[in-house]
Amino acid sequence: MDEKIFELSFEIIGYAGNAKGMAFEAIAKAKEGNIEEARILLKESKEEVNKAHRCQTELIQQEACGKKTDVSVVLIHAQDHLMNTMNYQMLADEIIDIHERFKKLESR
C-alpha cells in the first residue's frame, strides 16, 4: 500500500473518531439540558469531519489525476468510519433538537 494513502487513511480515521466522540458528548450535554453547549460541540464535530473530508478529497484528486489508489482494509475502514460518523452527527442534531423541545416543555 502506498505510504501516502496509508497516512491519509489514518488521518481520516483520527478525525472521524474525534468527530464522533464530540457528537456523542454533544448528546450527553443536551441530555443534561445544556443545549447551547451541545450545539457548540456538534459544530466542532462537524469541523473535524471537514478535516477528514479534505483528506478524502486529496485521495479522490490523486485518483482523478491517474494515480491508482490501492484499496486496503485500512482505507475501507477509514471510509466506513467517516460515513458512520456523518450519520451519527445527523442523528445527534435531531436528538439535540428533541432535548431542546423537552427542556422548553418542562419549563412551562
TrEMBL record:
GO biological process, one term: phosphoenolpyruvate-dependent sugar phosphotransferase system
CC cofactor: Mg(2+)
Tagged with keyword Magnesium: yes
Co-factor remark: Binds 1 Mg(2+) ion per trimer.
Domain of life: Bacteria
Residues the record lists as Phosphohistidine modifications: H77
Classification via InterPro entries: PTS_IIA_lac/cel, PTS_IIA_lac/cel_sf
EC number, UniProt record: 2.7.1.-
PROSITE patterns, A to Z: PTS_EIIA_TYPE_3
GO molecular function, one term: metal ion binding
Residues annotated as binding Mg(2+): D80
Active site (UniProt): H77
Keywords: Magnesium, Metal-binding, Phosphotransferase system, Sugar transport, Transferase, Transport
Any Pfam family matching the protein: PTS_IIA
Protein name (database record): PTS system, lactose/cellobiose family IIA component
Species annotation: Romboutsia ilealis
